[in-house]
Design a protein that fits this description.
heterodimer, A: 192 residues, mainly alpha, two-stranded antiparallel sheet, 9 helices, 39% helix, elongated, B: 93 residues, mainly beta, five-stranded antiparallel sheet, 1 helix, 6% helix
Chain lengths: 192, 93
């Protein structure tokens, strides 16, 4: 971690204009669930971007029967993340019977159910910071958003806003971290 | 000539010729078509556009055949039911 006293002094909880370029390029992880994380098909969603825009190319529910939905379904089942009808159902927020009927209509083959993905775990053992450094969670305070080192790095060094920090930690740790949580802890440790 | 009376649902296939006297009715959450089908019949796939507002323009496939409009309830609004020849799916894939 790289902690600077002057950057902490200047930190006001808003995104800093001169922050590193790699912070601007942060994206949400791809996750199998409708409008959660980056979509499995298409470009990843940037941190702070509108999640629904990232899914605007998706076809779901009755739209799956439209003639042009065949290409989308093919791309969906070609994805390394989608290994079963249940995975597709979760990703599209659409019942599996509808997807199965649409695949039959479009001639898209569905993977064998026995190849189904393992359920996505709710947690992780480490946190990778925007600069690429990975920290084991056992070395950080619990909850992680209360750790002064993490807050200093993200808010001050990386120049991220409170909302961006909350979204990043929610995404990377598979937890619900709110902007209010981050603000409260940043005030407690005198970063704000 | 064939008297047609059957339930329709999005994604389902239906055999249709030249249609006349078409009526769509909704009941118990489903939609029923009644019509007269004449001549050679082809296989079509049922589709719908939901939540239509008055004056709204709709872009349908060039080979689409409009069946009618159904108002299921005030929450969902009006739905336009139409069908497309099943051959179109092979062309678009």
């Amino acid at each position: 971690m790289n902690i600077s006293a002057s950057k902490i002094e200047d930190c006001d909880g808003n995104a800093r204009e001169d922050r590193p370029q790699y912070v601007e390029e942060l994206t949400l992880k791809r996750k199998i669930r409708w409008q959660e994380g980056s979509p499995v098909v298409g470009d990843p969603v940037g941190l702070g971007d509108d999640l629904s825009d990232g899914y605007s190319h998706y076809r779901r529910r009755d739209e799956l029967f439209h003639p042009d939905a065949g290409k989308f379904l093919t791309r969906l089942f070609d994805s390394e993340y989608i290994n079963s009808l249940d995975d597709a159902s979760e990703e599209l927020g659409t019942n599996s019977t509808t997807i199965s009927r649409a695949c039959d209509l479009h001639g898209v083959s569905i993977p064998d159910e026995s190849q189904s993905s393992d359920p996505q775990e709710g947690g992780t053992n480490s946190l990778t910071l925007p600069g690429g450094e990975t920290w084991p969670l056992k070395l950080l305070q619990e909850p992680v958003y209360a750790d002064v080192r993490v807050l200093s790095q993200l808010l001050a060094t990386n120049g991220m806003s409170l909302g961006e920090v909350a979204q990043l930690l929610s995404d990377r740790l598979d937890r619900n971290v709110t902007e209010s949580d981050v603000r409260q802890e940043a005030q407690r440790v005198n970063i704000l | 000539m064939r008297y047609l009376k059957q339930g329709i649902d999005v994604g389902k296939k239906i055999e249709l010729g030249q249609l006349s006297h078409v009526e769509l009715n909704s009941s118990n959450g489903g939609v029923m078509i009644e019509a007269i089908s004449r001549g050679d019949e082809d296989t079509y796939v049922i589709l719908k556009e939901s939540g239509l507002d008055r004056g709204e323009s709709i872009d349908l496939h060039e080979d689409a055949k409009v069946l009618g409009v159904v108002s299921v309830n005030s929450f969902v609004g009006n739905s336009l039911y139409y069908c497309i020849p099943v051959e179109v799916y092979g062309e678009e894939s």
